[in-house]
Amino acid sequence: MATGWAGDTAVQDQIDATVEDAIKRARSRLPSGPGLSRCEECDAPIPEARRRAVPGVRLCVACQQALDAEESAHSGYNRRGSKDSQLR
């Protein structure tokens, strides 16, 4: 296949770079450092096991689940794949 000046692995290199950037971006959003002993939303105690498992934890499980559900509801992706979205 004619690719001009691009090398044989240029497409795969671009895919790899995109994936690496996405991983770095996701990791940068993860909490870090010492976690809280009480939830910053509802003031419920955060169990020691959760604080060890999730570095930098700031929310109890219930509050984190509520936040995750809220964020996924506003993700902006059309997961149903309607015919109209496929035609655009």
UniProtKB/TrEMBL annotation:
The keyword Zinc appears for this protein: yes
Lineage: Bacteria, Pseudomonadati, Pseudomonadota, Gammaproteobacteria, Lysobacterales
The protein's name: DksA/TraR family C4-type zinc finger protein
Stored PROSITE patterns: ZF_DKSA_1, ZF_DKSA_2
NCBIfam families: C4_traR_proteo (TIGR02419), PRK11019.1 (NF008243)
Zinc finger (dksA C4-type): 39-63
Keyword hit for Metal-binding: yes
Keywords per UniProt: Metal-binding, Zinc, Zinc-finger
InterPro entries linked: Znf_C4-type_bac (IPR020460), Znf_C4_TraR (IPR012783), Znf_DskA_TraR (IPR000962), Znf_DskA_TraR_CS (IPR020458)
Domain Zinc finger DksA/TraR C4-type, first and last residues per copy: 37-66
